[in-house]
Design brief:
Length: 176
């Protein structure tokens, strides 16, 4: 059994070589917003994960989700709390930010949606350029928004309260 390429072993410069292709053609950061009540979503593809990109997402969010007031629930990524973002939010008093607790990613309702978007856009595909990747992401977003539905959070608590109705009132017991 021969484990080397070519018909016969050749020493020197005629030896067959192979450069591995790991598939990295560039970087695209995807910033997104998701409204669980309607399922409507928006994304912004950017070459960096910085405050400027987050501010662009906030401007896009104001246009995509028209309202008088917004309550945005964000994770604790450093760009969400940067000085530039805090300064910009002074100009938008109708936007209120609420941050989920640290180490509680299961409370972030956009995380399961990222999984759906990733499956729609990337599953089984290979992209030669970052433009192709961004186009696939926007195509998946268009498909999602055309077939959207309200998101029902399916995470259940580990401890269910057990209600026992008694003579003088109700008591709640938790069982482990």
């Amino acid at each position: 059994m021969k484990t080397y390429p070519g018909e016969a072993w050749q020493a020197g410069s005629g030896r067959a070589t192979f450069e591995p292709d790991y598939g990295r053609r560039g970087v695209v950061w995807v910033h997104g917003a998701f409204e669980p009540a309607t399922g409507l979503a928006t994304i912004l593809c950017s070459s960096a994960r910085d405050s400027a990109s987050h501010l662009q997402l906030l401007e896009q969010l104001l246009a995509t989700f028209p309202s008088d007031r917004w309550l945005l629930i964000e994770d604790n990524l450093i760009i969400h709390k940067s000085r530039d973002v805090k300064t910009a939010l002074l100009a938008w008093p109708e936007i209120q930010l609420q941050f989920i607790p640290k180490y509680a990613c299961w409370l972030n309702l956009i995380e399961p949606w990222w999984k759906q978007l990733k499956a729609l856009a990337l599953k089984g595909r290979r992209f030669e350029t970052t433009a192709e990747l961004a186009e696939a992401l926007h195509g998946a977003l268009a498909y999602w928004n055309a077939h959207r539905h309200p998101y029902c959070w399916r995470k259940v608590p580990q401890v269910w309260p057990k209600v026992i109705l008694g003579g003088f009132g109700s008591t709640i017991h938790t069982s482990l």
